[in-house]
Amino acid sequence: MKQSNKGHVPVLVSKGGEDMERIWVSIKVIHHPKIVEFLEQSAKEYGYQQGVLRIICDVDDFKDILANIS
């Protein structure tokens, strides 16, 4: 079943490529400098791909960052 969260984009988050967790990120914070930094780092690691965004970061750390910038 596909989950849809209006105003959010799905991001797969994992440290080092192990099991990735899908986290819904508000489009309001997707351009935050810290999120952009994570996306740029991931582009270097994975290349630019179509589909779900991927971020290399500890899941709990990423959730804490989102809570602080939201």
From TrEMBL:
It comes from the Eukaryota. This is Putative small auxin-up RNA. GO terms for biological process: response to auxin. Belongs to the ARG7 family.
